[in-house]
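[SOLVED] Need 3D model of a two-part complex

Original post:
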Amino acid sequence: QVSELVQFLLVKDQKKIPIKRADMLKNIIREYRDAYSEIVKRADRTLQAVFGLQLVEIDTKRHIYILINNLPRPEGQHLCRDKEKEKMGLLLVILSFIFMKGNSVKDSALWEFLHLLRVYPGKQHSVFGDVRKLVTEEFVRQKYLETTAIPLTDPPEFKYQWGPRAEKETSKKDVLNFVAKMQSKDPTFWASQYSEAEANK
Amino acid sequence: MSHTGNSGESSPASRRRRRSRPPHAQEDRAEEDTAEEETAEEAAGERLRQLDIGDGDDREHNRMIRSQYRELISTVQQNREAMLNSKSNRLTEALEEANRLFDGVCRAREAALDAQFLVIASNIGKEKANELHSEMSAFDSTAFAEDLLTFMGINRTEVEETDDSEDVPGAFLPSDAWRTMGEEASKYFRRAPTFHYMMGSFKSEPPAPKQRIERQKKAGRGKAEQAMPAQLKKMEESHQEATEKEVERILRILQTHFENDPNTPISFFDFVMDPNSFARTVENVFHVSFLIRDGLAKIKLDEDELPIIEPIKPSEGGEEDSRAGVRNQVVISLDQREWKEIIETFQIREAMITPLYENTEEEMETE
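Solution:
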């Protein structure tokens, strides 16, 4: 049962959409419901020992899980496809912007910023295609970003924050280091962001 | 009193009639009732007048107030961005305007609009407060964007600075820009690599039927193969050995010519050229190259720098010539025009290497 669950999790993770406990129970565990937590624990152990991955619960109320990488980050080339890499590039840029601007930005502000990088919500992008869909749907579904409606706005406006997957897969400190590297400055240059990043470890 | 006991009429109807005519009813009652009720009635009338309910121009007044409120609300919504600007006082001004309008409000309907405005205004106020509250150190997003573009390898050299426009402004962003960014980005994420089967998916169903099919095919093929080899042997023999035979034959021709006249080396072109067939000429060159390779003949350049060919006597051979002799690799190219030129130049009338097949000569004569 454990190995079936491990395979199930690995395949489910392909789209990076978080895995629900209900799905796990329905498809794999089925009649062994009582042993659920034990099976999950062993699966996690296998994932860690064999694949260097970790099963993390990002929503304790609704029991939703994601897989993250447990291994220390290697310096060399990553065996990712280009499409994935490019999306991660865009995502990192967005997450940096959100953090540096106080952990929450309005959608208009975000698009204004992306405008500077030649990324437009209304225009098909040569690399990303429908960018609006990528940001507002895909990244949100994958739990990299979280979007909330700002009440009583007409036309409705949204704000963006880091999603739970982003919180687990990276950190404010890493992101601040990225920004510092890009701008050739020391991370302590931005005092309040720096202290928040340090506190957040 | 006069209204009671009308059993003929339905009571709700009469009640409705009574309600729709309050002034008259009141007046009626005022006439009939006591003085106490009169004063009460007067007080009520006074209050009604204070509330300004009435006809004609008051309705106009209310309409005006409603439209002013709506205008104010729309202005505020449209200029939300401008109002959020911390240097702007426009929110305060709008609030003062609303205050002023409220003085003229006397009914719930206009008051509702006022409440709506208040909600919107307070939302803006909250946002403004948030922006002030932001404890983050100043972050220049424009500079950040510029740095990102630099990292992605933007080429700014041929640019005249244009401002943000929907169309691609001057500077050239390479196509692998985002890949570069992504390469850097992957260092900051602990992302589980997506799981893909290396060899493709493995279907567990078909094996049983497939085996049966394979066995059948093998049986069939076995027979066919048995028939084939017999033929093949013959063909292959002719193919491989034909070359060897030909090479040997050519060697013999070369040796024969050389025996006849041992001191005159044979011009390479004279030897290989077949004036009747370009194809055969090429074949001859091909076969001669085997001779050279095997050390059975050699090609030298004479005084005129023209290639000459001569066989190597087996006695001479051995260590001296085959190894010590400088072995060079030469590539000879020959196209039809050159072939014709050579034939002309050297006046080659007949092939030294007699062709094996006579039939083709008839074909060639059609040239």
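Edit: The first strand of chain B starts at residue 266 and ends at 267.
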